[in-house]
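Form 12-C: Joint structure prediction
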Amino acid sequence: MLYATALKLLGVLGALLLLETLFMLAVRQMRGIIRLYAIHSLLLAISAAVVGYVTGMYHLYLVAGLTLLFKVLAIPYSLERVIHDTILEKREIHFVFGVPGSLLIGGLLCLLAYFTSIRLVYPGDTLARLLLSVGAAVALLGLFIMVGRQEAVPQISGLLIMENGVILIAVVTAFGLPLIAEFGLFLDVLVGALLLGVLVMRLQRHNETTAVGMLRRLKG
Amino acid sequence: MAELILLMPLAASGISICTDKFLAGLTALVQALTLAFSLVLAWRVAQYGPLNYGWFYIDAVGALFLLTVAVVSCTAAIYSAGYVRSAHDGAPITGASLRRYYVQFNLFTFAMLLIPLLGNLGLVWIALELTTLTSVFLVGFEYTGRATEAAWKYLIISFVGAMLGLWGLVLLYYCTVHAPAAYQGLEWAHLYRLAGSLNPQTMKIVLLLCLIGYGTRAGLAPMHTWLPDAHGEAPSPVSALLSGAKTTVSFYVVLRFYFIAVRSLGATAQHLMLFFGLLSVLIAAAFILQQQDYKRMLAYSTVEHMGIAGLGAAFGTPLAIYGMLFHLFNHAVTKSNLFYAAGNVLLKYRTREILRVKGLLKSLPLTGVVFLVAVLAIAGLPPSGIFVSELTVLTAGFRTYPGAAVALLALLAVVFFGLVRSMYQMVFGPPGGDVPEMGISNWNNLAMALSLLLIILPGLIALPLLHPLLNAAAAVFAGR
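Section 2 - Result
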């Protein structure tokens, strides 16, 4: 009984994750994007914990805990510091595609993710049926957010969203991954995000802007 | 032995945190010792077969790439000793900057040496990430706006590649768990053995994700865009490491995934690799022809050679695989040498524009000769290792995919023209009147001379340890 409820809860969490990612396509404020990323990670952490409960893989609780620590708290906090230091927090982001165009492309990416992922699910694998395509869609949307923004910090957020999608895929399909791999992955993301933050500040210092779309010196 | 190889650069990087005395000499010594240990390890693998203990799994392929990385790291360490004496603006690097350089340099080589020693693909993924994280600030080391921009692009595109690669890795795990011969884990040797029973539907997606994801780091088109920026803006010894060691070892990871997929998918996998390989050579040829900056030209030549290696893997016969592995080794030593020579030119002329460099043979005789020989070698002229390995790949290609082989030959001719034209402009003629007086450190010349030997020798004789290793490595991948 509890198991069935947990599965239903996972379905709801998956739907929320996808909706939030789509919503992020339309957000223009920098600080808003970072807050949404924190919520995104929170949903991911809850999903990982529920999957851990359903499958009996208790080390997924550790994944949930690390997600909470790094991606709900540490990374959003430091990103906010970065945009605070560069006095950009309320600035609006320039979109390459505009909101309606972004949403349209986002919808198409979701379809693509669904139709490629659903064929990979082995029969009887309820978890993967429920969440594999959600993970794929989130990853593709994250990539699209990264490509479609011309600002450094939103590009980082896009990457991190993509990473959340891949982690979701890992949680539902490969929950037996060795623990060391998971730990390495989290450390990698944390360090990577910090390095990106440092680079953003350097870019700001050298160019007086973090609009990386304006960087045109290195070509050909 | 493997622990020792890893411990040495790690210890050197630890020492670099504490002191800035004798760092250059120490690092060169440590890297030379690492090379010596790698030679011993490779000899053992060639003699007694794969080593497998703890997290280590070292077969002939791993030993070959370990050797390649160790060779390039060693010459780069020697060259670095000269670089820190007179950096891009002619002033020596000292104090905190020097420590930072050597901490990262040694960590970077540690991460690259780690990859071919590991047997678990999950750990390999982490080690590959480590190579990126440890080298970002080496790329941005010169702290100019352009260098920062290059470092940013490098990190962000590598990160996308890492995520795609992780996605592929996770799906690979998923389909091994559900395969008839169920196996839970990511040990390459096991995966390779049961590759035939993997679900081809899933493997297609896995291969696509892995070729793009890991291919990003290897410099395969269309995800190569970070490469000319990073290789162009980094300090010359770091460019040599990136071009010679990092792309090579990343390509090694691509190969590990690719040959699992070939066992499961057959010709489909080969066609996919053929596409990425040809695309890389094509794009590189186009950009080499219109390149104004010699370091970027060399970087695009790296893309070209990764494409050639990709084509060798795609042709798939034992001969082609042998040629491809040999080619990766030759490219690593030749391209690192070219970056050393280019570093000397940059030091002397203070410009990276091809048209503003003239008369290298007169102003820097040794560098001029090395540059001349190395460009002719990288363009595929005998007597060089590259000539032999390119010929091997082409010969194998004419038997399996003649169309692709003809296209490759035509593109090679275009690249040859582009490279030699630029080289001619730089090497011959009288040097301009405004060349500043700038002596080149003996360390720089030593690094160039050492790797010049390795460019020519493999083209003339079958090197003792290298060839048994190449044969064994080709047998690992060709064993159907």
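Section 3 - Comments
The two ends of chain B are 31 Å apart (CA to CA). The CA atoms of residues 294 and 354 of chain B lie 6 Å apart.
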